[in-house]
């Protein structure tokens, strides 16, 4: 099982299926089913499934987490549960004991997870959560900006993993702010190196698309990317399987020994 969860040297792809639930919830009812999307994602080359149970349940529901836990356990694949640092979410995570838990900041009024967790300011609040989740056997990841202070603080909590927020880099690329994109990418590279030097496993995610995936995938310390919104959007045009297969191929190309990304 451990081998399956972490193939050596290969960049893993976690597919976030939240926005399948967003479409379902637009009409109520059961369709489209995020669990079916998870099955298709795994068949198409996803290494694991990521789902964010938000406090307001705007997309993924508690029942989805029940079903996803069963599916991933049956398939011996990792579920990465994204959640806010609250007692309610902690109880849910301790009930399911997913392979991984990614702690994220959450504001009710935001459209998506806009920034990273403030681990420097919230250290005393976050550290006991990390401890409880570690004890339960989940691999804890903190979603943070690539800021040296945040990385060092994340390390002090006892978390095994940091997920670096790639949103600012991806937005800058999409909006043609080239200089800013370079600065953000340099910060991600430096942050990944710093985190890895501390012994943290490095993940990255938010806002990644076909254009931005390769420079991020080429950062050697990054072990996993978590990608959602763009893949679900592409699924409308080409289908979920082909969208994931293309993303997977771009990631693998960026990691190939002769890659230039
Ligand atoms: N990683 C984390 C921690 C997130 O909160 C999200 C968004 O839910 C993602 C990755 C995926 O971002 P996107 O949907 O923009 O690909």
What is the fold's blueprint, element by element?
Layout: H1 2-5, E1 12-16, H2 18-27, H3 34-43, E2 48-52, H4 62-74, E3 79-83, H5 87-96, E4 100-103, H6 123-135, E5 139-144, H7 148-157, E6 161-165, H8 167-174, H9 178-197, E7 201-205, H10 213-217, E8 222-227, H11 229-238, H12 240-255
Parallel strand pairs: 1-2, 1-8, 2-3, 3-4, 4-5, 5-6, 6-7, 7-8
Helix pairs in contact: 3-4, 6-7, 8-9, 11-12
The chain binds pyridoxine-5'-phosphate.
Q: What's the CATH H-level superfamily name?
A: Aldolase class I
Treating each run of at least 4 consecutive H or I residues as one helix, how many helices? 12
**Overall mean pLDDT score?**
93
Q: Give me the count of strands.
A: 8
What proportion strand?
15-25%
- Give the termini distance in whole angstroms: 32 Å
Main beta sheet: 8 strands, parallel, barrel
Q: What is the CATH topology classification name?
A: TIM Barrel
Could you please describe the fold and organization of this structure?
The chain has one domain (12-254): Aldolase class I (TIM Barrel), CATH 3.20.20.70. The chain contains twelve helices and eight strands. The two termini are 32 Å apart. The chain is of the alpha/beta class. The chain has helices at 2-5, 18-27, 34-43, 62-74, 87-96, 123-135, 148-157, 167-174, 178-197, 213-217, 229-238, 240-255, and strands at 12-16, 48-52, 79-83, 100-103, 139-144, 161-165, 201-205, 222-227. The structure holds pyridoxine-5'-phosphate.
